[in-house]
Design brief:
With 208 residues, this protein is an alpha/beta fold. The protein has one domain (6-206): Rossmann fold. Helix content is 57%, strand content 11%. The chain contains 8 helices and 5 strands; from the N terminus they run βαβααβααβααβα. It has helices spanning 17-28, 43-48, 50-78, 91-99, 102-116, 132-142, 152-172, 192-206, and strands at 6-10, 32-33, 83-85, 124-129, 177-182. The protein has a 5-stranded parallel sheet, with helices on both faces. Helix 3 (50-78) packs parallel to helix 5 and helix 4 runs antiparallel to helix 5 (102-116). It is globular, with a radius of gyration of 17 Å. The chain starts with 5 loop residues before the first strand and ends with a helix. Bound molecules: adenosine-5'-triphosphate and 2'-deoxy-guanosine. 2'-deoxy-guanosine is lined by residues 13, 35, 37, 43, 57-58, 61, 91-92, 95, 99, 147. Keywords: ATP-binding, Kinase, Nucleotide-binding, Transferase. ATP binds at residues 11-19, 138-142. This is Deoxynucleoside kinase. Belongs to the DCK/DGK family.
Length: 208
């Protein structure tokens, strides 16, 4: 690893990223960097009209994550401390390639690379995969009002986009370890044994 362990939990909407990242932060006594959701002024509008609001939303996420990396991640890694986050900044590109079109997509991609290419990236990714039915159930259970408008088509596309993105990341960055978790079957919330197995695999990676 070229810097202190920087762990990211990833997966499509509702996969359980924040839940697992928080549990691991507690268990491993690591500082947690969490996505800012409630203060996002565009999510509500975006889910009602994606074409109209996607550029504002993607730029907002990008700027927010860039600032979090600057303020909360880089200082820790510079001091040689490990950190865990419930996202990888690469998710900006996963979503934006799906939600933006034409010239806006090109411009966004350019800005993404300018802002992030020289930033430290997670060297361990826990990728939670889950099927559409599981994600829909968890999103409904969580009950965020603005997510009631999420379409099954959009979610299904994101599931596939995530699979493709993780495959491409593994090819481009072979030094990044990706642990894939089958979120349909592995229940780290209800089953302490399942959580224990994840902790064991993470500790193994950290000791290498
Ligand atoms: N393994 C699990 N079994 C059952 N419920 C779960 C599991 N993991 C998460 N949940 C529940 O599913 C909902 C979504 O989880 P969470 O908020 O952690 O997902 P997320 O991937 O961080 O979502 P988002 O993409 O919106 O940030 C929450 O209500 C959480 O309690
Ligand atoms: N379009 C888009 N781009 C992103 O980078 C992004 N990151 C998260 N989200 C959505 C998923 C959840 O509803 C909610 C909380 O994760 O925000 C995103 N949506």
């Amino acid at each position: 690893m070229n810097h202190a362990p920087y762990i990211a939990v990833e997966g499509p909407i509702g996969a359980g990223k924040t839940t697992l990242a928080s549990m691991l932060a507690d268990e491993l006594q690591l500082p947690l960097v969490k996505e800012i959701v409630e203060e996002n002024p565009f999510l509500d509008k975006f889910y009602q009209d994606m074409d109209d609001w996607s550029f504002q939303l993607e730029m907002f996420f990008l700027c927010n994550r860039y600032k979090q990396l600057e303020d909360a991640v880089i200082p820790k890694l510079t001091q040689g401390q490990s950190i865990i986050s419930d996202y990888h900044i690469y998710k900006n590109l996963i979503f934006s390639e799906r939600t933006l079109k034409g010239i806006k997509r090109d411009k966004y991609r350019h800005i993404y690379h300018v802002l992030t290419d020289d930033l430290p990236k997670p060297n361990l990714i826990l990728y939670i995969r889950a099927d559409l039915e599981v994600l829909l159930e968890r999103i409904a259970k969580r009950g965020r009002s603005f997510e009631e408008d999420i379409s099954a088509d959009y979610l299904q596309q994101l599931i596939q986009d995530y699979d493709a993105a993780m495959t491409s990341l593994a090819e481009r960055e072979p030094s990044t370890t990706i642990i894939t978790i089958n979120g349909n079957e592995v229940d780290f919330v209800a089953n302490p044994e399942h959580f224990g197995q994840i902790v064991h695999r993470v500790k193994e990676c950290l000791s290498q």
